[in-house]
Amino acid sequence: MPLENRKTNSTKELIYLSAKREFYEKGYKGTIKSIAERAGIPPGLVTYYFKTKNNLISEIYKDFYRKIGSLIDSYEYLNITNSLYKQIVSSHIYYGTILNDENNRRFYMEVRAKRSSNYKLLHEVTDTIYWEYIKDFNLSITKKEFDILMIMQSAARRDFFLYYYKNNLDMTIPEIVNTVEAIVPRLFKINQDVVDRYLLQAQNVVKEIDYSNLKFLV
Predict the structure, then answer these.
(1) Does 1-51 carry CATH code 1.10.150.120?
(2) In terms of CB atoms within 10 Å, which of 9, 14, 103, 108 comes out highest?
């Protein structure tokens, strides 16, 4: 790799890691300026590589989600191939990692509260997953219908988590996953017995996956 490219990758990675540490310690109020100060670089370099703080946050979310997917794929013997099943297992790891750490949890909830929709953060990843639902279950849903349903499910998730956080609901990770991962299947009209079976299987199979080294922020 040319020296210039190595330097570019190194600087971008430094910004990314500094942002994760900044958000972990300060929550959503971490700024481009404070991230740059932590990284020891001019603020202009942060905006050069990531444009905005929300773009940086989106990269953190997408990177975390993709790492979860790769981890699950590495457990081939568990045969987690169906898209719905894999998404539910992913959700156990996703929310287990975020909500069981106070600082991760705070940042996650602040992002939920600050943005009108979390859809933009992950839609590049989740849209692909939910289109797999359509193929796996041979559903008849148009692109227009799909886009509308995605906005609806995103709003439902956001409102649920804001209510959960504001009221300090006493819910386990499986209870949370069973609540939020039932939204899209219901909107898509997937057979509820099938959904319930995967929800139950996921609670057991996730115990076989070691995700202790997986980090959301730090």
Answers:
(1) no
(2) 108
